[in-house]
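Q: How would the structure tokens look for this protein?
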Amino acid sequence: MDPLFAGLALIAMLVVTLGSGVWIFAGLLLVSFAGLHFLVGMPFTRVFSIAGSITYRSASTWELAAVPLFIWVAELIFRSSVSARLFTGLAPLVDRIPGRLLHTNVLGCTLFAAVSGSSAATTATVGKITSKELVSRGYDERLAVGSLAGAGSLGLLLPPSIAMIIYGILAEVSVSRLFAAGVLPGLVVAGLYSAFIMLMALIRPSVAPAGHQNFTMRDYARAALDLLPVVALMGIVLGAIYSGIATPSEAAAVGVLAAFVVLILLGELSWDLVRASLLGTVKTSTMVCIILISASLLSTTLGYLHLPQELGAAIGAMNLDPLALIMLLAVFYLLLGVFVDGVAIIVMTLPMTLPLVTAAGYDPVWFGVFLVLMVEIGLLTPPVGINLFVLQGLTNWPLGRVARASVPFFLLFGLAVVILVAFPQLALWLPNLLYGG
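A: Here is the predicted structure in token form.
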């Protein structure tokens, strides 16, 4: 069968299946089975045999062990007072910056993202504390919700990012290098958000209540103590990775142990908390892993149809320069992010796009950061923007209203992508410094 026709048929099936509201993993499996049977001509016995092999290979990947462990760390923090301490600890530090407590959304998400690796967990945890607290204190509700939607997305970019782990597994790239590559771009995004909040506070002072609190040295000391649990967890996990003491998967286990120690010291560890956190971890981990397995089967289907090779040849024949190729892929991922979940985007498209960008001379570590940034933009676009759904549940706003509030931060993400393309060393400098060029 002609690869172009087969590819178009497969894409049409994907659009119809996912657009019908079917669960993402079920849609991917249905399309993969249909593609292998009807387009490739493979008997169903052979299809099931291939599916079994792929399931075992995907599920037994050692690097994937980090995913449920980092999610467990996030669940433990989410269900304890550690998350609430973030707000009280950050409040004195931002009181004299234009926008004041609105910056707790950005800083809180940045700190929590560096522990959890999950965007949804970051948005839910910080949003649970700040969304109502800021409004009750007279801060602009739209800016509070929008900044939370944008900053919550940092959970995918800052280490230990679950999306980076999945990309590293599929692209066969060092996860430690990817973690290091995400640090500076993540801080740039956080800086853009804080700068925008300051600008809005200067243009429209009504977005934040006037006046400042008179914090004493005792208040600052208490704030430091409130921040200590999260900072300690972040230092332990990232220190274990970057020092070479532990791999990302081993560091995830260290993170769980450190979270238990923190909860014991705070006197909050209980069977109910452990049970609830484990249930939440199982649900989230199952979702991530089953999407990864189903998308791996779809990638195999694409391979049998020779679609990646044909697509690469077609784009190669266009004689695009590297910058034009990246711009084309940015538009492609932007459109895809409107309809498809971020993890599914990575696993579905990587077999097609990674050979193209490496052939164009781009570093696969740099492309991992670029891809995760594009996926993060998708978290802010309806109808499948995960962060929008989380905030809809927290605020009881219509989805459209939450999406409109996040538009400025969506555009700032776009600006961050432009900066990354213009200055690729932003992503490559730190991993080259830590692990060599």
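Residues 366 and 425 are 8 Å apart (CA to CA).

The mean pLDDT is 82.

Upvote if useful.
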